[in-house]
Amino acid sequence: MSEQAGRDPDVLTTAELAAKLGLSAQTVRRMANAGQTPALKTGKDFRYSWEAVREVLRQPHREPELSVPKEPEPKKGAGYRAQRRARSGAASTASEN
Prior knowledge:
alpha+beta; three-stranded antiparallel sheet; 11% strand; DNA-binding protein; DNA-bd_dom_put_sf
C-alpha cells in the first residue's frame, strides 16, 4: 500500500480493511451495510476509521436473547366478556386436568 500525500492513515478503503482483518472485501461491505462496522459511505463504496473499527471489535460479542413464548392474545374484535370467558375457560381446563 503506498501512502498518498495528505491522506489520513487512519482512514481505510474496503480493500485495505479487508486485508487488515483477513476477510474478503465483500464480507467487509456486508458488515458495513448491516451496521456491524462503523463506516462512511463514499459514493458506491465505504471508508473506515481503523480506530473506530478496532473499538467495535474490542467489545464483547452478545448472543441474541431467546424470547419466551407468550400466552396467545385473544382475537381482536372479541368483546370483553368473550375475552374473559376465554381466559377463565383456559384456566379452568388446566386446573381440571
